[in-house]
Amino acid sequence: MKRSTAVVALLVCAGVMWVLGSQNWGAEVVNQTPEGVQDVGSEAVTNRVGIALAAVAAVLAVLLAMVGRFGRWVVAVMYALSSMVFAVVAVAQTDAGILRWAGLAVGVLGAGLSLFIARASGDWTTRNKYDRDAHTSTDEPDSVSDWDALTRGEDPT
C-alpha cells in the first residue's frame, strides 16, 4: 500500500466518523416524547466527543505521512485508540438507534485499518532530493558526480 493511499483511506474513515458524530443522536428520543410533556430543547443533540475524536483521527492521518518508521507505529496506534474510543462512545449512546451501530462499525474499521497500515508501511522509504534512483548505475557519470569531481578539483570533461 502506498503512503498516499493509506493517508487518504484514514482521512476517509475520519470523515465518516465526523459525519456520524455530527448527526442528530437524539432523534428517536425527541420523536417519542409523550403528549403533554414539554420538550426541553428542539436543537439537535450531536455527539461532541465523537466529533472531537474524528478531528484527532484526521490530524493523525495527515501526521502519518510526515513521520518515520517508529513514528508511523506510534501514530497508527494512536489512531486505532481514537477509533476504538469513538466506537465505545457510539455504543454508549443508548438512544441513538442505528447511529450507535454505524459508529461501532466505523470505529472498529478505523482501528483495524490503521494497524494494517502500520504493518504494511514497513517498505515505505523516506526520500529526499539527494537520493538517487535505483535505475541509475554508479558507473555512468551524472550531474551529481560531475559536481563532486569539480569539488575534488578534477575536471570531469
UniProtKB/TrEMBL annotation:
Residues 128-157 are annotated as: Disordered. This is Heme/copper-type cytochrome/quinol oxidase subunit 4. It comes from the Bacteria. Residues 128-138 have a biased composition (Basic and acidic residues). The chain crosses the membrane at residues 45-66, 73-92, 98-118. Keywords: Membrane, Transmembrane, Transmembrane helix.
